[in-house]
């Protein structure tokens, strides 16, 4: 059952990205280009998503178990450290170069654009590099 | 600042965003997990992490989405703006950055802000800021 709900959630998430236009790198870059012709659509995607997810997440914060009986695993760290900020800044630089973040990177793969595969392979290599560096610490 | 009225799509953006919100809600209410794409991917790359089956199925759902879309709709516009070198540098930055920063647009931007996590708010402001600055430098200072 948990596998089914996870699959459905992923499917809905991907349809949402496609409908929102967030799987189009040019559109994402249009949002990030505030000094040029600015397309505020991405802000509306965030508003739509947060408005819907607000109550479910506030409900989840008060639970110890999910509806299917799984442990509620929400992040507990509250530290605003260099890793959080430095990592997020680096992510933002990459996002600003190509206009692709991890969700759209995956949604773009089956669409047959070679650019999506180059980006996704580099992204996975970056993630793997992080795991290797972590393992050595 | 000039508004790009030609490309601005408030309704489909809101509707797509709402679907993303529903997806994140299903994941947290049913599975007790945050629908953060970089976190799920990172976990799948780390042998020994718990719940890898359901995480893999979420990712599979994400990959299946465009196929389902193509059954009923024509492809949405997809336009890339970078060449192979840009894509490789960008992919590496996104891969390393999201893992060091413990999240991306979905985990921090949607799930984290929905529960008002201070870490996620700071992370979202950080990657948005870096994204704005990067596009400004590339497009308006360097002329890419």
Structural features, described:
The complex is a heterodimer of chains A (137) and B (144). Chain A has helices spanning 2-20, 25-32, 41-61, 82-98, 102-108, 114-136, and one strand spanning 37-38. The mean pLDDT of chain A is 96. Chain A is an all-alpha fold and 137 residues long. Helix content of chain A is 69%, strand content 1%. In chain A, helix 2 (25-32) crosses helix 4 (82-98) and helix 5 packs across helix 6 (114-136). Chain A has one domain (2-136). Chain A is globular, with a radius of gyration of 17 Å. Chain B has 144 residues and is mainly α. Chain B has one domain (10-141). Chain B is 71% helix and 1% strand. Chain B has helices spanning 10-31, 37-44, 52-72, 84-100, 105-114, 118-141, and one strand at residues 2-3. Classes of the chains: A mainly alpha (137), B mainly alpha (144). Chains A and B meet through helix 1, helix 2, strand 1, helix 3 and helix 4 of A and strand 1, helix 1, helix 2, helix 3 and helix 4 of B. Strand 1 (37-38) of chain A pairs parallel with strand 1 of chain B.
Features:
heterodimer; A: 137 residues; mainly alpha; 6 helices; 1% strand; B: 144 residues; 71% helix
In total, the number of domains of chain B comes to 1
Low-confidence stretches of chain B: none
Query: Given the helix and strand composition of chain A, which structural class is it?
Result: mainly alpha
In helices, the fraction of residues of chain A equals: 55-70%
Parts with pLDDT < 50 across at least 5 consecutive residues of chain A? none
Main β-sheet of chain B, in a few words? none
Q: Largest interface by residue count?
A: A-B, 116 and 113 residues
SSE run of chain A: HHEHHHH
Quote the distance from N terminus to C terminus of chain B.
Answer: 19 Å
How large a portion of the residues of chain A is in β-strands, by DSSP E? under 5%
Q: State the secondary-structure class of chain B.
A: mainly alpha
Strand fraction band of chain B? under 5%
